[in-house]
Input
Amino acid sequence: MKAFSRAMLLRWLTLSGLVLLIFSVQALGQGCSQCLDSTRATPPAVQAAYRHAIFLLGGAGAMLFAGGLLVLRRNR
Output
């Protein structure tokens, strides 16, 4: 029974994460006004580089968080 509940929990967490990810896509068009003002005067290539860097930093943060959760889970 314990393995079944862990599997269900993992499914719910995965589903919840996907739903949150889908809803967060709407926030990509928004941004802080300070960043908007500072990047508005830059060329399009620089703006594209900023967008790429934001995804990289977000992915790195997510991977660190997931890795930390795995380490904490294994040490229990």
